[in-house]
Amino acid sequence: MTSTPFPVASRAASSSTTLGATPAAETLPAPDDHAVIGFLQRWYAYGGGRSEDILVEFGLSTTQFFTRAKDLLESKAVRVDPAVADAMLTVCRKRLWLGQ
């Protein structure tokens, strides 16, 4: 009997997804929500931070990072002053729209 390098459960979970679609929980690391918002609070006045810094600190592409930050701010999962949250959302939407 040969052993496989992957547990059977992970193969079953991945085979249940449709072609090309992978659940975000399986592919993305889960950085601390407060760390994401804290980074954005420090950098939103300057456009949200450099892509390289986001990749090094969180292991996420800019699209993944700003999508996560936008979702957190819109869901109010992390408490932020409403005026600051609006400014941060503007930065998130702009970076997502620009694709950077």
Task: Give a structural overview.
This protein is an all-alpha fold. The protein has one domain. Helices cover 62% and strands 0% of the residues. The protein has 6 helices and no strands. The chain is globular, with a radius of gyration of 17 Å. About 24% of the residues have low confidence. This is DUF3263 domain-containing protein. InterPro entries: DUF3263. Pfam families: DUF3263.
List the helices and strands and how they pair.
Blueprint: H1 8-15, H2 24-27, H3 33-43, H4 51-58, H5 62-75, H6 82-98
Helix content: 55-70%
Q: Mind summarizing the main beta sheet?
A: none
N-to-C SSE series?
Answer: HHHHHH
Class by SSE composition: mainly alpha
Shape designation: globular
- What is the total tally of β strands? 0
Contiguous low-pLDDT stretches (5 residues minimum) are 6-29
Total individual domains = 1
Determine the strand fraction and express it as a percent band.
under 5%
Output the number of helix runs. 6
Q: What is the terminal-to-terminal distance?
A: 49 Å
> C-alpha Rg, in Å?
17 Å
Organism: Rhodococcoides corynebacterioides
Region (Disordered): 1-27
Protein name: DUF3263 domain-containing protein
Pfam family, one: DUF3263
